[in-house]
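Technical annex, item 7. During the second reporting period the consortium partners agreed on a shared format for inverse folding records so that results from different sites could be compared directly. Each record opens with the tokenized structure and is followed by the designed sequence. A conforming record, contributed by the partner at site C, is shown below for reference.
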């Protein structure tokens, strides 16, 4: 008894008498089927040890600057704790379990900055955070599938420049793995929420919990730094006018008219990717401040655990056991 109550957690409560057991069962039955937080909680609720207001200083408005996603997460979760799933695999994405108001939630987010030397393993070029590579896509597929098995709701945090492209990426099956992630999401049947921290780009926006490819998306939040587009405006301008520039230069024609068109296209992309425009067009349901994210996460956790369709008993959960090894 001591082992399974104190160590393994297989027993949620221990009683001295049979009457105590019956009273305990009665208390549990009082919580069914109506909402009672203590029935679903894995721990007592705690505020983050770090102030959520500090996220204003952690996430740069400049989309090209890196930051630590782990530091952002530490300002959102109960007691700033988390259990990371496969930390040594797919370093461009974070996957793990967190507690929000004492309730178990899966968290997935893009990491930023330079990735370890030799990654991605299938290509000669260095990996950059924000982009999705083979291991990261496999890891997200695995984590989402296990969240579905354990009936754990998921919160996605997007700041992605897209999925890796090119011949090496195609040979590494990135197209198929992205499609597989959409399939994995659709098979989970657990509620999900999306926060677009900064960039939501192209197909990566769809497959990382985006509402356009996720029937389980409850709502999508924008922030002051949200941008949603098929590609960045500067990239679109180069793709559209690069050949024209070469032709004009070879013909000895002035380049300024083409450059002005490029700048106009980039400006149009910029205007149509701003947080306000995203909300107006329905790309996000609401634009909130960084310091308000924790409140929305608590509201989401409280709602999805309100008389859910099905649950996994805490002592049957596989994800915590897989993480611990």
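Designed sequence (site C submission):
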């Amino acid at each position: 008894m001591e082992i399974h109550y104190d160590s393994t957690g297989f027993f949620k409560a221990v009683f001295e008498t049979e009457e105590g057991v019956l009273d305990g069962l009665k208390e549990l039955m009082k919580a069914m089927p109506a909402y009672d937080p203590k029935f679903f909680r894995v721990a007592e609720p705690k505020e983050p040890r770090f102030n959520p207001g500090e996220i204003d200083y952690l996430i740069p408005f400049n989309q090209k600057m890196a930051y630590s996603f782990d530091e952002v997460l530490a300002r959102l979760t109960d007691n700033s704790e988390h259990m990371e799933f496969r930390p040594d695999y797919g370093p461009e994405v974070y996957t793990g379990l967190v507690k929000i108001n004492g309730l178990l939630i899966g968290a997935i987010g893009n990491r930023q900055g330079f990735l370890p030397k030799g990654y991605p393993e299938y290509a000669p070029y260095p990996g950059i955070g924000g982009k999705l590579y083979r291991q990261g896509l496999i890891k997200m597929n695995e984590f989402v599938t296990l969240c579905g098995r354990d009936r754990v709701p998921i919160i996605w945090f997007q700041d992605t420049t897209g999925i890796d492209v090119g011949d090496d990426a195609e040979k590494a099956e990135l197209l198929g793995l992205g499609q597989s992630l959409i399939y994995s999401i659709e098979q989970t049947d657990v509620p999900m929420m999306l926060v677009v921290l900064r960039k939501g780009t192209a197909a990566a926006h769809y497959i990382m919990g985006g509402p356009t490819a996720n029937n389980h998306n409850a709502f999508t939040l924008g922030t002051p730094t949200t941008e949603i587009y098929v590609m960045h405006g500067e990239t679109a301008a180069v793709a559209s006018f690069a050949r024209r520039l070469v032709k004009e230069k070879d013909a000895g024609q002035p380049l300024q008219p083409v450059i002005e068109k490029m700048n106009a296209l980039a400006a149009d992309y910029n205007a149509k990717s701003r947080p306000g425009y995203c909300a107006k067009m329905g790309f996000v349901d609401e634009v909130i401040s960084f310091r308000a994210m924790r409140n929305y996460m608590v509201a989401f956790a409280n709602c999805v655990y309100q008389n859910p369709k099905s649950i996994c008993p805490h002592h049957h959960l596989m994800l915590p056991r897989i993480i611990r090894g």
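The first strand starts at residue 83 and ends at 84. The mean pLDDT is 93. All partners now use this format for quarterly exchanges.
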